[in-house]
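Lab notebook, page 48
Experiment: co-folding of the full assembly
Goal: obtain a model of how the components sit together before planning crosslinking
Operator: M.T.
Materials (sequences as entered):
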Amino acid sequence: MQNDAPQHLMGYKTLAAVLAILLMLTGITVGVSYVDLGIMNVPLALGIASTKVTFVLLFFMHLKYEGKAIKVSFLCTIFFLAIMISFTFWDVAFR
Amino acid sequence: MENKSDFTGIRIGMWLFLYTEIILFGGLFVLYAVYLHMYPDDFVSGGKQLDRVIGALNTVILLISSFTVAASITAIRKNSKKLSLGLLAFSFLCGVVFLVNKYFEWGYKFHHDIYPNSETLTNGPPGENIFFGLYYVITGLHGLHVIIGMTLLAVSFIWVAKGKIEHNNFAMLENSGLYWHLVDLIWIFVFPLFYLVL
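Observation: model returned without errors.
Model output:
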């Protein structure tokens, strides 16, 4: 069973570094929320949230070290989610 | 025939389940997006009524607990059982603190007559009613996931203690961890959408 190789082992240091980045981004998103940027506030908050989510997925959920099956199926899910959100939204916005 | 458990297969199964969860919450976020578009001002005034300090605190709690769950997997794989148990217990405690915060937050809102079908909301602006409706549904469903995640962590804790989860057999802990991280992921989006809308 050579293909069932043990999973990548995440070191404590890597995990701690990821946590530090996540906490920093949380601080930034809270700080920025006090500044009125008009229409830019929501995209900026979502941009930071997406960055945080990417870190959690890649390292805490070690998507970075997974095989093709999980990577591709995950991207398909996100693609479907994007279609679901954007098409519904366009329908409502330009009705 | 070698009887070996299929770690990759177990993980793929867990991920497939997580996809359904992503779509479940995705559907609720579609509702949020559409109503934010229809009632931008009411959503802003609704968001201002939520305490962003408690929201930020809960974000930090979940992020730290995600880290400790991930570290507990590393610990068990390095054969440090005690450290793994300690980290799991700490993560469970984080879940408890999160729920206690939510309890006070909801209680405070109830006290101010802000809950589904309350006088203030039914007679107030429609957008605010929808905002708090979505707030209760999404944070409520998320809270339910926190409770399920804590249950999985508790079971994993017992299995580690009993030696059913070991350095070479940790699929249960792995999958509980994945679920806990998903709970974290959803909160990362809930937090800015509800607490930080200007």
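Interpretation: The mean pLDDT of chain B is 93.
Next step: discuss with group before ordering constructs.
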